[in-house]
């Protein structure tokens, strides 16, 4: 069933069009984004099962909610886990209409001041992008008609008259011609802003290894993103690689992404978010307490820092006290000066040690060690929950008994 026969209206084009970003602030370092839609904690019923969107929007602790996910683009389709049970199929398409989401998006924006994004991709996205740039541009135009302002009554409208505040890209595998798709969305949003005054966001969620394999084409100066939330989990460069109290960070690479923001990004004012798992089961490398506080404080020392992203809503609501701790950590002062130490052992075993103090916007020196001639390097066994394999990994690969190196992604395996 098409949108017109399902909803039966034409005249309320601007019903859910706030005049600016609902919650995101490009000048803030305390933005907090939490994904909703996948019910990844896995409860089918009860208080810890994924609730309707407006339930979470009433929480004042976060201001950005990406809806996960729009899982196909050629013939668009959505997956919101158990929230999809409240929707009805739209005849002639792979989409469904969600009266509850139509109401909740408007409520979240106008009543609770949230930025609501539609996230594209997810782990189940398999289209691989587009065969040509023309196909990408055409698909973006169609997505805009479906989820942007009401401009075409012949297309299905899953959210009815509600209009999202922008789009997020979360690709877990390489995609083709996605830059033309993203730029077409950006052009359409810019044109709409000139007419209605409503502004839109364009964001991405790359993995922390740089450059990101999936999003590299878009991130390499091709698309003007407003923000990126880097996934510092399920990867060797994740939170678990952060060394508390150390002036030099080796694998944890927020500094690399800050450098990207300043020297590569098409938008020099792009904000970089620290992406973290919201619970022990939400992603490998989960950290909390004083360790996470130290990581947030360190990351806030970089001028591109814009806040924290958490995966995902169901996980963080099942993790009592975690969300409040993150909010508290975001409110603490940043690490304003970072000391970098370079240690090198030469072949003659002469040790050279130099120390310097650098600003957070400077890429930190990586500690390197070369063993003396004739010596045999020793690699200690890897303890439980630490990394043991993954693309680019140069550390230990043998787990301490009884743990086994368990594959989690191409970038990250850990001892479990």
From TrEMBL:
The keyword Hydrolase applies. Transmembrane segments: none annotated. SMART domains: fCBD (SM00236). It is an enzyme of class 3 (hydrolase). SUPFAM superfamilies: (Trans)glycosidases, Cellulose-binding domain. GO terms for molecular function: cellulose binding; chitin binding; endochitinase activity. The keyword Transferase does not apply. Residues 30-333 form the GH18 domain. GO terms for biological process: chitin catabolic process; polysaccharide catabolic process. Residues 380-416 form the CBM1 domain. CDD domains: GH18_hevamine_XipI_class_III. Residues 1-22 form the signal peptide. It holds the Pfam family Glyco_hydro_18. InterPro entries: CBD, CBD_sf, Cts1-like, GH, Glyco_hydro18_cat, Glyco_hydro_18_chit_AS, Glycosyl_Hydrlase18_Chitinase. This is chitinase. It comes from Phialocephala subalpina.
């Amino acid at each position: 069933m098409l949108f017109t026969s399902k909803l039966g209206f034409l005249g309320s084009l601007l019903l859910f069009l706030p005049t600016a970003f609902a919650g995101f602030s490009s000048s803030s370092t305390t933005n907090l984004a939490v994904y909703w839609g996948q019910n990844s904690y896995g409860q089918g019923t009860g208080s810890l099962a994924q609730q309707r969107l407006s339930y979470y929007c009433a929480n004042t602790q976060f201001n950005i909610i990406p809806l996960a996910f729009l899982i196909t683009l050629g013939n668009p389709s959505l997956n919101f886990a158990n929230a999809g049970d409240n929707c009805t199929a739209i005849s002639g398409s792979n989409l469904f209409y969600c009266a509850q989401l139509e109401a909740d998006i408007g409520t979240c924006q106008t009543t609770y001041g949230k930025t609501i994004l539609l996230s594209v991709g997810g782990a189940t996205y398999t289209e691989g992008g587009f065969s040509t740039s023309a196909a990408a541009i055409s698909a973006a135009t169609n997505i805009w008609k479906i989820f942007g302002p009401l401009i075409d009554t012949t297309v299905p409208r899953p959210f009815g008259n509600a209009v999202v505040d922008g789009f997020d890209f979360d690709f877990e595998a390489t995609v083709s011609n996605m830059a033309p798709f993203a730029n077409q969305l950006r052009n359409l949003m810019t044109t709409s802003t000139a007419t209605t005054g409503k502004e839109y966001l364009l964001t991405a969620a790359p993995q922390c290894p740089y450059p990101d394999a999936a999003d590299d084409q878009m991130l390499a100066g091709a698309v003007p993103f407003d923000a990126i939330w880097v996934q510092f989990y399920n990867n060797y460069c994740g939170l678990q690689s952060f060394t508390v109290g150390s002036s030099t960070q080796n694998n944890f690479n927020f500094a690399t992404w800050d450098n990207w923001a300043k020297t590569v990004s098409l938008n020099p004012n792009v904000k970089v978010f620290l992406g973290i798992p919201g619970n022990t089961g939400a992603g490998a490398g989960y950290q909390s307490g004083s360790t996470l506080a130290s990581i947030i404080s360190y990351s806030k020392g970089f001028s591109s820092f814009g806040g924290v992203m958490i995966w995902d809503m169901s996980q963080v609501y099942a993790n009592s006290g975690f969300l409040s701790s993150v909010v508290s950590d975001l409110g603490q002062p940043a690490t304003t000066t970072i000391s970098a130490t370079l240690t090198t052992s030469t072949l003659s075993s002469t040790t050279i040690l130099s120390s310097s103090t650098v600003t957070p916007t400077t890429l930190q020196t990586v500690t390197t060690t070369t063993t003396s001639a004739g010596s045999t390097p020793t690699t200690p066994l890897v303890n439980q929950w630490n990394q043991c394999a993954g693309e680019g990994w140069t550390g230990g690969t043998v787990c301490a008994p009884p743990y086994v190196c368990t594959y989690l992604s191409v970038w990250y395996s850990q001892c479990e």
